[in-house]
Target: Glycolate oxidase FAD binding subunit
Amino acid sequence: MSIAAPVTTPDDEAQLVEAVADAGARTVPLAIAGGATRLGLGRPMQTAESLSTANLTGITLYEPAELVISARAGTPLAEIETTLAAQNQRLGFEPVDHRRLFGSQGTPTIGAVAAANVSGPRRIQVGAARDSLIGLRAVTGAGALIKSGGRVMKNVTGYDLVKFLAGSYGTLSVLSEVTFKVQPSPETEVTLVLNGLDDDRAVEALSTALGSPFSVTGAAHLPAGDGDVARTLIRLEGFADSVDERMKDLVALLAPYGATESLDADATRTLWRAVGDLEALGAPDDAAVWKVSVKPSDGPAIAAAARAAFACRVVYDWGGGLVWIATETGGFDAGAAVIRDAIAPLGGHATLVKASDAVRLATDVFQPLAPPLMDLTRKLKARFDPAGILNPGRMYAGV
Model:
């Protein structure tokens, strides 16, 4: 999917409000983009014009002592991470970079992280991006400026728009500013590696590690393939003395699963970046890629069903609860029938993260909703975007 011309690029929030209100008045469907790195995610859209937040840049508030940062939506993610790193802080949910996956050349932005709820391997410990998002400013499809949340975590009554709009993929509003809670960076990190485990045994080992008191911050499994031995990965972070002690105890706990080797901090950072950015999946450029979320114990069954039906590559993250499947041979639906039939009795959901335009038009990209939920989705779309101009059809046909 490409940006539709002409492209409007507001320089400030007032211009953003004006641009959206104008498109609404003209009933002109807009393709909403930040850094344009994930345009291939979602259903292809028929839009007449585009709206980019690329010029809405700059950190508007950063208080290291309060562990909070605010920035305009188009601010490059790299700028946020560099600013935080200078104070030995980070975005705890470990946002990932999918430019390699989609073959895109844009610049990831902090607004897109919130809009797509982009969360990496550390989600198993700190939650998703929406769990760290504590405030936002946005413009609805009606051209109304809304503000929700603030600079501190707090209980709320009524609608929690911060959590609600995170992960709505620009279909309900255009984010203009976001506020995230951040966390201190660890003194060091290490990864324990178990070699040669099959999928079931690997998930069992990951569950054992995650169920321990040793504060695991990464739990992934890379099955054997292309001559490589299977590797089961467990990450620990924190103060050096604490990491050393926890590592020794975890090695002892995992002894029934075989001998472990350890990777130092530099190797750990490189490895987990490859896991989060899906470099470890090794998907060919023309492969279709699925993101399947199930109970960790059910992950191997989903992978087995896919492997029985077509050639594919698999990576497990989040202790086995997130299964990435890449295939070049899944047929006209990229394996949708096989994968969704496999998860139907188990619960969970499957998202077709990447495929050709033709496949994404013919196949439900996001997990199909039950009729009552689809009815609610349509009503929410109508409430926030009455003219239906914001990323129309990106998540569900006709919505």
User: Anything to note?
Assistant: The chain has 14 helices and 18 strands. The chain has three domains: 1-185+369-399, 188-276, 279-362. Residues 279-362 form a domain with the Alpha-Beta Plaits fold (CATH 3.30.70).
